[in-house]
Amino acid sequence: MKLWIMRHASFIARTVLVQNGNVEQAVRLINRIMGREGFLEQYRLTRYYEKPYQTRRRINYTKCKAIYNEDMDRKIEFLLRKNRVEPYPGYC
Amino acid sequence: MLRQAILVPRIFSFLERSVLGSGERAGGLLAQETCKATCLLCGPQSSSIKRPLHTTVPRSKAEDRKEMLASMPKKDEGTEGEKTIDVDLLSKRFEDIFPDENTPSRLFDGIPYSQLNICDIKATKNNTIISLNDHKGKALMLRSCGMEGFKNTRQGTNIAAQATGISLAMRAIAKGFKDPVRVRVSGIGPGRMSAIKGLSMGGMNVVSITDSTRVSFAPTARARKQRRL
Questions:
Q1: Contact B124, B187 (CB under 8 A)
Q2: Range from A5-19, A20-34, B14-28 that averages highest in pLDDT
Q3: Does the CA dihedral A8-B211-A15-B102 come out positive or negative?
Q4: Which region is the signal sequence (chain A) (predicted)?
């Protein structure tokens, strides 16, 4: 019985070609992409069974964090508004 | 990111550079203190010179921003012991990095990509197993950390994985499998990066790296219960 179906096309998806023999850079790139897209996090979560109460706790924490981050970013953007003459002309 | 900038004072480390006579850029009191300590014009040594003269150090915004970003704490990407690179730097050469519809027929040392040997690396928490296979799936070689002489806990280390990679590469070349190889990694473990590094150190020509970690976002069969330590 086939329990796992490879949904990603072999050697097309989740693949990085090595450039100029720079294997380390390719490894870091694929790790970074996998991490950014949430594969590694999902892998770690599914190693052991996460009980429903733990799932609810985690999701609620993530939601609260997202709300806080959104409001804090808005506050910072608001506080950093300015409408004044350039104090250090030529600095760029 | 900016939130951290406001909370963490060491973000201004790049501003504390004080050249003789310039203290304007570092904020407030710090500027005056550094100025008075080092400046010839308004410091303790000055007695005759009354009028303070300050010049700003010629700086560029890009340089300062780079310094500031370098001094920020590194964000955890999720893989232990791995460093990250800025993907945006590679945006100019994206067509060369990721495979497209022509890649299976693209030649590497005269062999089309779809017919290259495959090097499967299974990186688990406790061990790393590397196997060299045909493009059809026929097994050619197999090496693991235990075969290298590491036992028990020491198998689940990056050093063991690197040694295994080197060993397999050298044995493969000795047996005649000198062709370029495409690597397929599975799992997250200490040997994930080190095994590939070992392969290339041993002399294997690694052409591409694929990740085939078995991950499901859909509900799966119930996994075993959490370990209580």
A1: yes
A2: A20-34
A3: negative
A4: none
Q: Inspect the interface and report whether the beta carbons of A12 and B208 lie closer than 8 Å.
A: no
Interatomic CA distance for residues B76 and B203, integer angstroms: 32
The residue count for chain B: 229
CB atoms A39 and B97 under 8 Å: no
Q: Is residue B161 within 8 Å of B194, Cβ to Cβ?
A: yes
End-to-end, the C-alpha distance of chain B in Å comes to 35
Q: Which of B171, B192, B179 is nearest to B120 (CA)?
A: B192
Interface of A with B in 52-71 (CB under 8 A): none
Tally of helices (H runs) and strands (E runs) in chain B: 6, 7
At B47-104, the pLDDT tens digits run 665 676 777 777 788 888 888 888 887 776 666 665 555 565 555 566 789 998 999 9
Exposed (0-12), middle (13-18) or buried (19+): which is B181, by Cβ within 10 Å?
buried
The mean pLDDT value of chain B amounts to 80
Q: How far is the CA of B71 from the CAs of A69, A72, A91, B5, B74, in angstroms?
A: 22, 22, 21, 10, 9
- Residue A78 gets the label, from left (phi > 0), alpha (psi -120 to 50) or beta, of alpha
Dig out the tokens for B36 from the structure. 């008075």
The pLDDT of residue A1 = 44
Inter-chain residue contact B200 with A43, CB threshold 8 Å? no
